[in-house]
């Protein structure tokens, strides 16, 4: 997965400061803004950006499988409660790491600086991240629910259409424009998704609708990270912390009034060792996944984050097909998924060569 940060100066993965001195903080800040060494000559992606993308893909594959196991194999009744557990786990990790001065919440922030309040973040900065936190909550709730109603192979296929929503949101919020090769690769991805979906023999309208809603909320969330995250002065850990302390109480209240907490207490496998292991690993993976999403979107772009989600689908589909099944074999379905993978590969190629 991903190892936690230390204060060693050799650590180039996590965005934490390595020295309390002013010149050390300034060098760290400049490195985060300007970027690291390129992945290779002529590439528009840095090595650090490539590491972030790979880390995201590894975490995402495993998290989807564990969430699917909890919601489908164990028939856990509430995706919202799992989201709440993941949020509590994430905030607990961040609080402990910040309290022990292992990480910082700001770009170039000193690990030895005393915190002036319990939130570790000024109230003004916290309020500035409020739109990001609300889009994060919406993204988490809808995405968790979307896993339940569709088999894993078709879920990953439909999720690849997120790229269209992301491109639209980036254009609206940031005026981002893309080259013809990028448009061509994205078009291939969408074409493959439609071909695969049209021949899905296990079609479920409600399941499809929730997945497309998840695509929309994901696009809004990623575009908001790209816009607010880079200007807030917070690093990935700081943004995750703000999301957790804003969304946690809201989600707790929501699960209480909906009766989700009561259903959880009556869940027959609540204290089953197998279910507890699945839930614990889901929470841990959610922490690393959220960190890698912030890091990948900040270092690269919202669209790159989306395409990374497409590339990891190869492993998700293969493992999901083997473990959970649920998708009858169909030639056109396979053709559609292959087109999606080709489109994702082309995008990654054009991104790496800087086109």
TrEMBL record:
Q: Where, per UniProt, does this protein localize?
A: Membrane
Which residue ranges have biased composition labelled Low complexity? Answer: 1-21
Record's keyword annotation contains Heme:
no
Query: How does the protein associate with the membrane?
Result: Multi-pass membrane protein
What is the top-level taxon of the source organism? Eukaryota
Transmembrane helix is among the record's keywords: yes
Pfam annotation, one family: TPT
Q: What protein name applies here?
A: Sugar phosphate transporter domain-containing protein
The source organism is Salix suchowensis
């Amino acid at each position: 997965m991903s190892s936690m940060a230390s204060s060693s100066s050799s650590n180039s993965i996590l965005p934490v400061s390595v020295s309390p001195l002013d010149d050390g903080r300034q060098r760290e800040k400049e490195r985060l803004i300007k970027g690291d060494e390129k992945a290779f000559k002529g590439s528009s992606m840095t090595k650090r950006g490539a590491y972030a993308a790979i880390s995201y893909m590894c975490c995402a594959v495993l998290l989807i499988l564990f969430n699917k196991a909890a919601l489908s194999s164990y028939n856990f009744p509430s995706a919202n409660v799992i989201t709440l557990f993941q949020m509590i786990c994430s905030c607990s990790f961040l609080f402990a790491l910040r309290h022990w001065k292992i990480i910082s919440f700001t770009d170039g922030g000193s690990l030895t600086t005393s915190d002036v309040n319990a939130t570790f973040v000024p109230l003004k900065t916290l309020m500035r991240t409020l739109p990001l936190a609300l889009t994060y909550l919406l993204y988490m709730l809808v995405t968790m629910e979307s896993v339940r109603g569709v088999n894993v192979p078709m879920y990953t296929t439909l999720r690849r259409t997120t790229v269209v929503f992301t491109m639209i949101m980036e254009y609206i919020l940031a005026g981002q424009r893309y080259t013809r090769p990028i448009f061509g690769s994205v078009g291939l991805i969408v074409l493959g998704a439609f071909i695969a979906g049209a021949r899905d023999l296990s079609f479920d309208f409600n399941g499809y609708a929730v997945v497309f809603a998840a695509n929309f909320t994901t696009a809004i969330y990623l575009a908001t990270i790209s816009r607010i995250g880079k200007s807030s002065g917070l690093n990935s850990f700081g943004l995750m912390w703000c999301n957790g302390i804003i969304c946690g109480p809201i989600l707790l209240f929501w699960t209480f009034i909906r009766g989700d907490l009561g259903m959880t207490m009556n869940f027959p496998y609540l204290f089953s060792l197998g279910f507890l292991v699945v839930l614990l690993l889901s929470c841990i993976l959610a922490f690393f996944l959220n960190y890698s999403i912030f890091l990948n979107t900040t270092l690269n772009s919202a669209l790159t984050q989306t395409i990374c989600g497409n590339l990891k689908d190869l492993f998700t589909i293969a493992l999901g097909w083997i473990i959970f099944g649920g998708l009858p074999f169909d030639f056109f379905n396979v053709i559609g998924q292959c087109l999606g993978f080709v489109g994702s590969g082309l995008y990654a190629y054009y991104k790496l060569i800087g086109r």
